[in-house]
Amino acid sequence: MITLHHLRIGRSIFTVWLLEELALDYELKVYHRDPDTMRAQADLKAVHPLGKSPVIEDGPLLLTESNVITAYLLEKFDTEHKLHPDRGDLAVWAQYNQWLAYPEGSVFAPLLLKMLTLRSGVDHPVISPFSDAEIALHFAHIADQLGDRPYILGQEFSGADFGICYMVSMAERLGLLTSYPSLQAYLGRCRARPAFERAIAKAVE
């Protein structure tokens, strides 16, 4: 059985969602942040020295990094390829993997910088203009890719949507979605999925 180590208020809720989409039996271990630093406490660091989440255990395998966990779980359990393509069409497979890696590889860093400057209450003369420009660049790109389609790769929900939805939801929390009605609608569609609602009920509420 898969064990998911889930740190409250963070990206691992999207791994809970993935497990619910796959309809897997899994054990959910919930951890809480230090109220002063908002960082992981010693109990999660005992699982993995970085104290980050998500972390999954599958037998002897201990695995971190959101998009790698997504790829692993889909490769192992999505044997009918409902949420990820096989390698039969290499171009389709490559495009899927590009969008799987893109959220953590490119979008997260400027959002993190924006979040930190907002928490500080002071615009930084170098960091703030950089993060604002990068956020505008990336979210225009995501909106263009989405177009009038329901999901990031077209008509069907896929593994690539977990990470994209995480970035869009983070942007929403930072008040950055007002200029992107299509992304607001996309976020609503993702949140309305029954598996997402089950994940929230199990891991947040």
Automatic annotation (TrEMBL):
Q: Where is the GST C-terminal domain?
A: 89-205
Enumerate the SUPFAM superfamilies for this protein. Answer: GST C-terminal domain-like, Thioredoxin-like
The identity of this protein, by name, is Glutathione S-transferase
Q: Which organism is it from?
A: Arenicella chitinivorans
Pfam families associated with the record: GST_C_3, GST_N
Where the record annotates domain GST N-terminal, the positions are 1-81
Instruction: List where the protein spans the membrane.
Output: none
| Taxonomic path | Bacteria, Pseudomonadati, Pseudomonadota, Gammaproteobacteria, Arenicellales
